[in-house]
Amino acid sequence: MLLGSNIGNSKSYIEKAKFMLAQVVGSDCNESAMYRTEPWGEKDQNFFLNQVVKMESELSPHSMMQAIEKIEKLLGKRKETRYGPRTIDIDILLCDDLIVVDKKLSVPHPRMHKRVFTLIPLNEIAEDIVHPVLKKTIGKLLEECADNSEVIKVQ
Questions:
Q1: How many angstroms separate the CA atoms of 119 and 86, rounded?
Q2: Domain segments of the chain: what residues?
Q3: Of 28, 38, 33, which is closest to residue 6 (Cα–Cα)?
Q4: Cα separation of 59 and 27, whole Å?
Q5: What angle do helix axes 10-24 and 61-74 make, rounded to 10 degrees?
Q6: Are the beta carbons of 28 and 55 closer than 8 angstroms?
Q7: Which tens digits make up the pLDDT trace of 101-149?
Q8: Radius of gyration in angstroms for the set of CA atoms belonging to the chain, rounded to a whole number
Q9: Counting runs of H as helices and runs of E as strands, what totals does the chain give?
Q10: Closest CA to 104 of 133, 61, 75, 56
C-alpha cells in the first residue's frame, strides 16, 4: 500500500494510518523509508510525505478497500479535488498476483508504473516483485519510468 499526506503533520497521519490498518487489515511486515515527494497532477500544493507498506491480510481486495475508505474518512480525508491536498491517502498497489478491475477498485493500481513517488519506495522493499499485468519487476518499471518528479528520502 502507498500512504501519502500533505496537510498538517503528515508523518503523524501516516503513522496513525499504519496503526489503524494493522488493527483492521492485517499486520505490517515491511515498510519503506518515508519520502518527500513532489505533488503529481495538481502541482500547486504542498509536497507530500509518502511511504509504501507491505501488509499480510486475509481480507479480499474489496474488503480491504472498504476498510481503507473508513480509515481515510476517520483521518479527515475529503474528496474535494482529484490529486488535491489530503490529510491521508491510502492506495492498494498490489495484492499478490491478483488482478481486479471494476467500478470500485483496480488492482494492481493502474498508474503505479507511471509514478516515481510510488515506484521508488516500492522498489526499496519489493524490487523483484513482478507486476501481474505488465510482467516486469518493480525494479524494471522504475528503470523505465519517464516521471522525473522530485522524490527525496527523509527517513
A1: 20
A2: 2-153
A3: 38
A4: 12
A5: 140
A6: yes
A7: 999 999 999 999 999 999 999 999 999 999 999 999 999 999 999 999 9
A8: 14
A9: 4, 8
A10: 61
Per-residue cell: 81: 479535488
Superfamily, domain 2-153: 7,8-Dihydro-6-hydroxymethylpterin-pyrophosphokinase HPPK (3.30.70.560)
57-98: pLDDT as tens digits: 999 999 999 999 999 999 999 877 777 899 999 999 999 999
Q: Which three cell numbers stand for residue 73?
A: 474518512
Cell of 40: 503529481
The residue whose grid cell reads 516500492 is 122
Q: Which residue has the cell 501516516?
A: 14
Query: At a CB cut-off of 8 Å and minimum separation 6, what does 45 contact?
Result: 6, 39, 84, 85
